[in-house]
């Protein structure tokens, strides 16, 4: 989907930018990802945005039974007035980046990476450096990765 669409106005062609209106919550097929959806809803409420939930599972996961966990997350998304989309793909970060562009997300919510780090957040941040990312720890603490332009400079005393 393009970020711009051409509109015809009495023979004149004009370009309008697609409105950016969503917080994207990236979940895995784990039941405890419901905390991410709840955090995404809080961010969306604060910023006046809608919420989209994305789950990208490995292709081989399609043969495993994870329906109970996905149903729990789908219900949590529904309770948060969010739509949930599930894809099966072996590169979840690239799928998430494409989905961000498709829905016009302006904020991303993920979980905190545990060891070993898979690079999911790094890939998203490198490909979408202007979009803030909120990472929610298991204890509910939110850590923010902000674009350079949004960071407050730290004043340090000279030695």
What would you note in describing this structure?
The protein is α/β, with parallel strands linked by helices and 159 residues long. The chain is built from 4 helices and 8 strands. It has helices at residues 34-47, 67-79, 92-103, 120-127, and strands at 4-9, 12-17, 22-27, 50-57, 83-88, 105-111, 133-136, 142-145. Helix 3 (92-103) packs across helix 4 (120-127). It is globular. Mean pLDDT is 83; it is low at 1-18 and 153-159.
Q: What features would you highlight for this structure?
A:
single chain, 159 residues, alpha/beta, six-stranded mixed β-sheet, two-stranded antiparallel ribbon, 4 helices, 8 strands, 30% helix, disordered N terminus, disordered C terminus
Task: Please write out the topology.
Layout (H helix, E strand, L loop, with lengths): L3 E6 L2 E6 L4 E6 L6 H14 L2 E8 L9 H13 L3 E6 L3 H12 L1 E7 L8 H8 L5 E4 L5 E4 L14
Parallel strand pairs: 3-4, 3-6, 4-5, 6-7
Antiparallel strand pairs: 1-2, 7-8
Helix pairs in contact: 3-4
